[in-house]
Structure to design on (530 residues):
């Protein structure tokens, strides 16, 4: 076994790559920061698509191209979780699957808007409006797989017995809290105006900001964590729980 | 007595508590801002809430909080049976909150009042709804603590989890202490 | 006073403050000053909960300060906005 930490940093770095690409392509080029107001008429929506078709197409394909980086980042988190979780590693796997499945709404929200930009002049405005609505209903309401990811991560890192935990406890709680708070998105489909609408202060600005900072904080601490893990490994003090055999080390009792 | 001595640090759950109370502070601001734009509507709608049930809700949560605090105190003195008894009572009393919520919500919905009826009721259902979800999680936490209290050592990790669970439960009470007057009482007329 | 008795006294005070606030609003109607009183009761109750039930009296002062500031700001905001709202 050469290096148990091989490719971990690549995975961690995929996080900021994802954020930049999603924010830049989907968000800025795609006119999704903030989302178009639910109050726009179908005619207004269609004319927006017609006017900005090429820019939006670029935004959507760019975001879709980089979508897998989100899952890579999730894998990085799981590798660090596995240094703390032994046995059948359920929470590490739930985190990984949560991150992986989050890629689906990321793809789908882009595809729906992309479809609307493919023939914007001949497609009827009602269909364009529907496609845009579908896009936002997808990305906002599919939060629950990401919530699963955030809570699993927080739970395992809270169990770190180190004097200075790999991931600070406040970030574990922020992760659990943020995951839980996404539930406010469940009432997004009921409102076309106000703070709970898809472009509302709460259901857009606050929720997505919580998530944006979550990714930044976690990425920062992942890089710090691997440096410490490598030191512990070199010093022979790192103990991989339970499934240590996978790392060529003796299984821990 | 152990709890009289100042501590160097607090259980890490305070990070969660802080984030949550700040989020609710934002909800309060948003509610009051909207209310300022539609005072008559908000007051009129608020009058349709049953302040007696709101009062009962508050008393239930305060009492349940007190019972949990007694439980934590009992645990600090190693009294396992007392701990379990207080936790069980706290859950039973706390369950009353779910009953009154159910009565309130079904009464409103029965009269055709939902979160889509107007902006006041949007906030009423959303805020009390999110609070109620916090309450449900809290009942789950108390239940787990009650079950674990049967066998776990009343020290170390379990005590931290017990205190943390207690702190979370008190937060549910704390939030309702602001929600009750803000939603139910601001519109009362003589 | 032992700790449990102290907790029970606090509970009784909380119950009384809750009923007082409710009674005031119901009987006087929520005029400007009634709301000030009701919200001051809420502030008083919230402090009892985070200081004594949540034990911020024995926590590092910074944590206590956060919560004192939080409840003061929430109550001040509610009082101010209902005041303004009356036009």
């Amino acid at each position: 076994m050469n290096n148990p930490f091989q490719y971990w940093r690549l995975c961690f770095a995929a996080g900021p790559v994802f954020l930049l690409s999603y924010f830049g392509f989907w968000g800025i080029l795609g006119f999704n920061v903030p989302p178009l107001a639910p109050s726009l008429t179908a005619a207004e929506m269609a004319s927006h698509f017609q006017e900005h078709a090429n820019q939006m197409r670029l935004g959507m394909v760019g975001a879709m191209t980089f979508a897998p980086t989100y899952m890579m980042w999730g894998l990085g988190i799981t590798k660090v979780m596995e240094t703390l979780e032994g046995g059948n590693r359920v929470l590490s796997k739930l985190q990984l699957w949560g991150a992986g499945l989050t890629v689906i709404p990321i793809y789908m929200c882009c595809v729906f808007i992309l479809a609307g930009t493919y023939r914007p002049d001949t497609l009827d405005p009602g269909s364009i409006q529907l496609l845009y609505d579908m896009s936002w209903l997808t990305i906002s309401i599919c939060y629950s797989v990401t919530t699963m990811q955030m809570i699993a991560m927080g739970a395992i890192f809270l169990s770190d017995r180190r004097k200075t935990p790999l991931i600070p406890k406040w970030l574990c709680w922020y992760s659990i809290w943020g995951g839980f708070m996404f539930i406010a998105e469940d009432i997004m489909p009921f409102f076309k105006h106000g703070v709970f609408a898809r472009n509302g202060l709460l259901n857009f600005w606050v929720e997505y900001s919580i998530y944006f900072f979550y990714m930044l904080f976690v990425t920062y601490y992942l890089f710090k964590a691997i440096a410490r893990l490598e030191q512990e490994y070199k010093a022979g003090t790192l103990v991989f729980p339970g499934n240590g055999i996978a790392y060529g080390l003796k299984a821990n009792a | 007595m152990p709890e009289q001595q100042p501590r160097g640090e607090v259980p890490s759950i305070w990070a969660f508590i802080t984030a949550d109370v700040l989020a609710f502070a934002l909800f309060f601001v948003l509610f009051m801002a909207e209310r300022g734009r539609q005072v008559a509507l908000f007051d009129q709608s608020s009058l349709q809430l049953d302040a007696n049930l709101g009062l009962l809700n508050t008393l239930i949560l305060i009492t349940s909080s007190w019972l949990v605090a007694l439980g934590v105190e009992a645990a600090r003195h190693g009294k396992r049976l007392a701990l379990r008894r207080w936790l069980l009572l706290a859950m039973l009393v706390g369950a009353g909150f779910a009953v009154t919520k159910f009565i309130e919500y079904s009464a409103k919905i029965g009269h055709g009042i939902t979160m889509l009826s107007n902006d006041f009721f949007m906030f009423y259902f959303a805020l009390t709804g999110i609070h109620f979800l916090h309450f449900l999680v809290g009942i789950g936490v108390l239940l787990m603590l009650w079950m674990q209290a049967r066998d776990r050592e009343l020290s170390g990790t379990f005590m931290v989890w017990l205190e943390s669970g207690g702190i979370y439960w008190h937060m549910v009470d704390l939030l309702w202490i602001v929600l009750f007057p803000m939603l139910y009482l601001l519109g009362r007329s003589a | 006073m032992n700790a449990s008795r102290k907790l029970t006294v606090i509970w009784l005070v909380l119950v009384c403050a809750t009923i007082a606030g409710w009674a005031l609003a119901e009987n006087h109607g929520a005029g400007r000053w009634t709301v000030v009183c009701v919200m001051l009761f809420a502030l008083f109750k919230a402090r009892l909960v985070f200081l004594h039930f949540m034990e911020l009296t024995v926590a590092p002062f910074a944590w206590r300060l956060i919560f004192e500031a939080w409840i003061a700001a929430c109550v001040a905001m509610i009082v101010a906005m209902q005041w303004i709202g009356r036009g």
About this structure: Residues 244-253 of chain A have pLDDT under 50 and may be disordered.
